[in-house]
Design a protein that fits this description.
Spore Coat Polysaccharide Biosynthesis Protein SpsA, Chain A, membrane, alpha/beta, globular, seven-stranded mixed sheet, glycosyltransferase activity, 30% helix, transmembrane, transferase, 2 domains, transmembrane helix, six-stranded mixed sheet
């Protein structure tokens, strides 16, 4: 007998749970599903629906005792939260002891691999990046209890060495692999990211929705204010790319620079340009957003001048979030999470704030310790001190499409990419981010999207 933990992201469907339950029934396995969720009201509702769906399927198929817990993904890496009934504690302890002695270590999932070494994985396995496999979290992933026990002891005795958490799925796989002393990821074909209405999904235990979920109408263009951070030396190089690609999709947009150039136009906020970190400029943008100098909007989007972004897709995504809540949305990174650190939105992929979040940030008195401090990390420290969550979306990307596994992007309709290095940014936008202009943005997305929020 082997116990398994299945880590199931909340948005994907689990219509193939019958497979897992029948495995439990036939072999006597005991499986605990852990739903990974987040703190915003939208994700809480998603997780609750997922839990109810799993329990409904389980009760209709078998009398297996199912235990489900919901774990916010803001918690440090490799944290597992379980909820056992009191009368099962003794039995579960027996099962855990038995598994430690008899069961192998299993690490299961849908494997991803890098085509080339990439900065987001610290250029790991540079000679042959494709040799190392890591799980696609969107398909769910699983650990056997003996592996969980060893990892728990390892985390206690040997904390995570990296200060930064950039791509958790890759870093978890590296930690489990343990320089060859631990198990490799074993591919499980039934853990899928196929659309739920696809013929291939018939044999899948997990699927993704065939449409981008919409929580009502996409937010209006007038609800989003866009702030672009630039500087004089990039006015002729990067700003024209924005004007050729996504600027037309934003009604309220301003360029902030160290030089006022009326031909663009750019606005000089009185903050000198810095080579590293732009904290002073970003906090000046936050203050301007709340002033009477700009339209009163519900959402603020801050991007770099080499960020490529789809405003129509962002409008669809924001329909699921309540702007009256302090929402801070983007691609979440972490700093020092195993030592009580904090999460932050990485700036290059785009940082989205509700007006309420900006109000709370500025009212807290939090500020930059220097103009060239890393703005995204300082904001993360501020949010952590205020107890405000950072909400992650895998649709924002700090790097270029080439820096991500093909299979990872295959089931996404991405919202952003970052950096112009060694690419044609206009071509990248047209391939990955431009929608069919013959259809309404939301209609086009609903026909083609295959991703989770």
């Amino acid at each position: 007998m082997t116990l398994f933990f299945f880590f199931c992201p909340s948005p994907p469907r689990s219509s193939g749970l019958v497979l897992m339950v029948l495995v439990v029934r036939a072999t006597g396995l005991f499986i605990v599903f852990v739903i990974q969720s987040q703190s915003s009201s939208f994700h809480v509702r998603q997780a609750d629906r997922q839990r109810a769906d799993l329990l409904k399927q389980a009760h209709s198929l078998t009398e297996v005792r199912n235990q489900l817990s919901i774990t916010p993904t803001n918690t440090p890496a490799l944290t597992v939260c379980l909820s056992y009934r009191e009368h099962m504690e003794a039995e579960m302890q027996f099962r855990r002891d038995t598994c430690r002695q008899q069961s192998p270590e299993w690490f299961l999932g849908k494997p991803l691999h890098d085509e080339e070494s990439t900065i987001i994985h610290h250029y790991a396995f540079a000679e042959n990046p494709s040799i190392f496999k890591y799980p696609d979290f969107a398909a769910a992933w699983a650990l056997s209890i003996p592996l969980v026990v060893r990892l728990a002891n390892k985390v206690r005795d040997e904390p995570l060495k990296s200060d930064f958490t950039i791509d958790l799925k890759h870093e978890v796989a590296l930690y489990i692999w343990d320089n060859g002393k631990g198990p490799h990821l074993t591919a499980v074909p039934e853990l899928c990211t196929e659309p739920e209405d696809s013929p291939q999904a018939l044999y899948c235990a997990t699927t993704l929705g065939s449409e981008l979920p919409m929580c009502g109408e996409a937010v209006n263009k007038e609800d989003i204010f866009v702030a672009v951070k630039t500087c004089r030396k990039f006015h002729s190089e990067r700003v024209p790319v924005i004007k050729k690609t996504w600027e037309k999709d934003a009604i309220f947009l301003e360029y902030y620079s160290d030089h006022a150039d009326p031909s663009i136009p750019t606005i000089n906020l009185g903050v000198p340009n810095t080579e590293r970190g732009h904290c002073g400029k970003t906090f000046a943008i936050l203050q301007r957003f709340l002033s009477s100098d700009v339209p009163n909007t519900k959402w603020l989007l801050i991007v770099d001048d080499d960020t490529l972004i789809s405003i129509p897709r962002l409008r669809v995504l924001l329909s699921c979030y309540d702007p009256s809540e302090p929402v801070c949305l983007g691609e979440r990174y972490g700093y020092g999470l195993s030592q009580g650190g904090y999460s932050y939105i990485t700036g290059g992929g785009g940082m989205v704030f509700s007006r309420e979040a900006v109000v709370r940030l500025l009212n807290s008195g939090c500020k930059c310790y220097s103009n060239d401090a890393p703005d995204d990390m300082v904001l993360g420290m501020c949010l952590n001190a205020l107890g405000l969550p950072v909400t992650h979306s895998p649709l924002f990307h700090q790097a270029r499409p080439e820096d991500y596994a093909r299979a990872f992007l295959a089931h996404q309709v991405p919202i952003s990419f970052h950096k112009h290095w060694n690419i044609d940014p206009v071509a990248v936008f047209n391939k990955w981010l431009r929608d069919d202009l013959r259809a309404k943005p939301s209609d086009g997305l609903n026909r083609s999207a295959k991703t989770e929020l």
